[in-house]
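Page 47, continued from p. 46.
Same chain as before, 257 aa.
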Amino acid sequence: MKKCLLCMGGIGIILFLFTLQGWAENVRMGYFEIRPHMYPDGKSGKAAGASARYFEMLAKEMGYDTEWAGPLPFPRLIHYLQEGRVDGSLVIWKNPEREKFLHYPAHPYHMPYTIFVVKKDNPLEKISSIDDVKGYRVGFLQDANLTPFIKENISDLKLDLISGQDWVKNNLLKLTHGRLDAVYDINEATMPYEAKKMKIADRVKILPLPEAPGKLFVVFSKKAEKGKMLAEKYQKTAEALNLHYQDFLDQEFRMIE
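Result:
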C-alpha cells in the first residue's frame, strides 16, 4: 500500500513538473489592433494577421507557444510593457523613451514607408515638401510615434489625434466626410487594407511622405522576467530563418480580394 502511495506521489510530482514546464514554455505577447498586421480572429478571438503569423512561426522555432493579450488600446499596451505585464509586443517603433523599458533586437522585421491618405479628388499627386500640405488638418493615433517629417513640420500642420481600436476606420470616415484633409500613418499597409475592406478604396489615394522608411520591431519588456532571454532568442531565430515579412502581408491582402 505504501509502495502504491509512493508511486502515486511520484506520478503526481512528474505531472506537476510537466505542468510547470508547459507553463514556462509560453510567451505572453500583448498586441493592439492594426490591420493587416494584428487583429482579433473573429472565430477564436486569438490574434490574427501578418505579424501574428510571423511571430508564431518564430516562437515555435524558439520552443514557445504564444499567448496573446489583447487587443489592447495602444496606450495601455505601452503601460503593460513598462510594467512587464506582458513579455513583449510587435509593430513597435523605436524611440529613446521606449528604449528605457524595452529590449530591441538589432534588426527590424519590417521597414514600411510613411504616408498621407487624401481624398481622390485632391489635386495633389506627390508630396515633395511641407509646402505641399501646409495647413492640412491631419488625423492620427494618440500616443503613437511621430516620424521626422511630422516632428519637424508639426507647427505647419493641425494634428487631430484620436484613440480607440477603431481609429483607422474613424479617421478614414472623417476624411471621406471632409472633416480631415489627410490621414497620416507610419506604415503603408494599414490604410489601403482598411479602405479596401470598407469599400472606399476608390475614394482615396495614398501619397508617400518624403522621408526614409521606418522600422518596425518585435520588442520585449525589460521588466518581464524572461524579457532579455526572449530578445536574444528571437534575434538568433529571426536571423536563422530569414523570413520575408512582405510575404505575410501579401497573404493578408489576398484574403480580402
